[in-house]
Task: structure prediction
Amino acid sequence: MIVQCKKCGIRYKIPPERTPKGKTRFRCTRCKHVFSVNPRNTTILVAKDNQDFCLFVKEILEERNFQVLTAKDGVEALEIVRQSQPHLAILDVALPKIYGFELCETIKSDPQMQDIRIILVAASYRKARYKRLPESLYGADDYIEIHHISDQLLNKIRLLLPDVPLQPNKPAPADDREISSTPPGPPLDDKIRGKVERLARTMLSDIALYNEARIKEGLLAEDLPERLAPELKEA
Result:
């Protein structure tokens, strides 16, 4: 079992023989924050390289009594999935190190992990552009465009985990915050490079999500740039 401090984010691995049977309080050794964990709670992994996004989704889910783990890249997410076996994983398709759709294929091809429900998060903000389903979900159970997190995520979880109650701990406060795709701060040189790489990864992941069949055909025919010329030009 893996538990995560709700304040500083550090994770602790608890061996099976020491896993509590009921709700238990933990004190973080790093920040001294005291938090409660109930191993019977449904566990959900949220993976994206944007802390604001992870905190935003975490607040939504914790209001419904879910235990939430977070990861900032595909390698970290895969490690958590293997160790913690969450009930559901919410994976950004543009994850660093391992793309979300690649991670999805890895999870679904492993007999020990294939029952984990997966929602892929499309990285696009453009509400008017994509009005069609992806050609393939790479084995995922559903997908959601990032601007629909607030109004569609809980309903999608309800469909994938029908036996899990979604009653809130308390009335969820209105939240008008925008989910930023880039971290705050001055545009220093090293951060500019990171932003450029993130933007390129985001655009490529969207192209891959909505054009899987054409990508496979292009790789076989060795004419991938020509087949995706309109999408690449726009990107």
User: Anything to note?
Assistant: The CA atoms of residues 185 and 191 lie 9 Å apart. The first helix runs from residue 51 to 62.
